[in-house]
């Protein structure tokens, strides 16, 4: 997961920011986001207004409290690492590490906006909540968290705040940090629950995520190919229908990236938390004192 997240973040920048064709594709979707903005913004604005520093503090405190109430002290530290690390990484990448070179004459100069800060906040707090709730509740939390992340990411596009690559890169940053926290989970104390608890729900939700990612990914790939061919033929995308196609493809790309990310986090954390400490004495069945244990007769 960590490697996939790092690779996905780099690929988003390399393909859509550091190449002229990628910038034109990203810009076509960005311009297409103006279609229907006056209407869609009524729903998008309240979603984005929620995201703030106080919001992060409140949610982080809530998820830490859940972890402490479950007596999962190490888990409380993990969610702090996940949320803090992901959001700090996004700000450092955006303002220090990455830049946005001027490569396409028809794409105006602008400062780097990759990754999206709002999307990072949404995805990281959703992933943190997924980590701290009991095993049985995680499939439903994963669905709700993925939905919230996708809606937030698309809302930044509706408002003209971010390009599609910014949103996808933010989701990949969270995937990378979730991968690190999953390793920490595997090293921690095992959950006191039956190994099969929540397994059927996890399988169903993970399958749902994969199907969603496949369907939306196909739409995104088709729209991307159509926009790329149009750019190769005419050098620009100006028709309303063509801009709408690019915009739709970008939105579906965000949905696909979100679905795959939360499927990976859900499955990996379920496996890691179930196996954590499985080879340690604490994870073995204990026999109450005074209980007679039959001995195998000698051969």
Query: In percent, how helical is the residue content?
Result: over 70%
> Secondary-structure element order, as H and E?
HHHHHHHHHH
Number of helices in the DSSP assignment:
10
Averaging pLDDT over every residue, what do you get?
Answer: 88
**Biggest sheet architecture:** none
Beta-strand percent range: under 5%
How many domains in all? 1
The N- to C-terminal Cα distance equals 50 Å
Integer-rounded radius of gyration: 22 Å
Low-confidence stretches: 277-287
Which secondary-structure class do the elements indicate?
mainly alpha
Number of strands: 0
Protein model, in words:
By secondary structure, this protein is mainly α. It has one domain. The chain is built from 10 helices and no strands. Helix 4 runs parallel beside helix 6 (about 115-130).
Task: Record the SSE blueprint.
Layout lengths: L1 H15 L3 H13 L4 H14 L2 H17 L3 H25 L19 H16 L5 H21 L5 H24 L11 H36 L5 H36 L24
Helix pairs in contact: 1-8, 2-9, 2-10, 3-7, 4-5, 4-6, 5-6, 5-8, 6-7, 6-8, 7-8, 7-9, 7-10, 8-10, 9-10
InterPro entries: PAP2/HPO (IPR000326), PAP2/HPO_sf (IPR036938)
Pfam family, one: PAP2
Protein name: Phosphatase PAP2 family protein
């Amino acid at each position: 997961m960590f490697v996939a997240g790092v690779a996905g973040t780099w690929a988003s920048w390399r393909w859509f920011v550091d190449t002229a064709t990628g910038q034109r594709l990203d810009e076509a979707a960005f311009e297409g986001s103006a279609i229907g903005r006056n209407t869609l913004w009524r729903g998008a604005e309240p979603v984005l207004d929620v995201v703030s520093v106080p919001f992060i503090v409140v949610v982080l405190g809530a998820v830490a409290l859940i972890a402490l109430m479950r007596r999962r002290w190490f888990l409380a530290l993990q969610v702090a690492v996940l949320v803090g690390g992901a959001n700090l990484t996004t700000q450092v990448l955006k303002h220090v590490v990455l830049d946005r070179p001027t490569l396409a004459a028809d794409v105006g100069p602008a400062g780097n906006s990759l990754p999206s800060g709002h999307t990072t906040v949404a995805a990281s707090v959703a992933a943190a909540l997924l980590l701290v709730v009991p095993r049985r509740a995680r499939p439903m939390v994963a669905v709700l968290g993925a939905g919230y992340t996708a809606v937030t990411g698309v809302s930044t596009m509706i408002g003209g705040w971010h390009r599609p690559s910014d949103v996808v890169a933010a989701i990949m940053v969270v995937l990378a940090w979730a991968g690190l926290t999953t390793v920490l989970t595997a090293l921690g104390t095992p959950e006191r629950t039956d190994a099969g608890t929540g397994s059927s729900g996890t399988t169903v939700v993970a399958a749902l995520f994969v199907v969603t990612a496949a369907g939306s990914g196909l739409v995104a790939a088709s729209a991307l190919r159509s926009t790329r061919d149009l750019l190769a033929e005419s050098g620009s995308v100006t028709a309303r229908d063509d801009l709408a196609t690019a915009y739709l493809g970008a939105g579906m790309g965000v949905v696909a990236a979100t679905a795959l990310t939360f499927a990976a986090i859900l499955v990996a954390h379920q496996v890691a938390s179930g196996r954590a400490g499985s080879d340690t004495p604490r994870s073995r069945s204990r026999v109450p004192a005074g209980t007679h244990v039959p001995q195998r007769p000698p051969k």
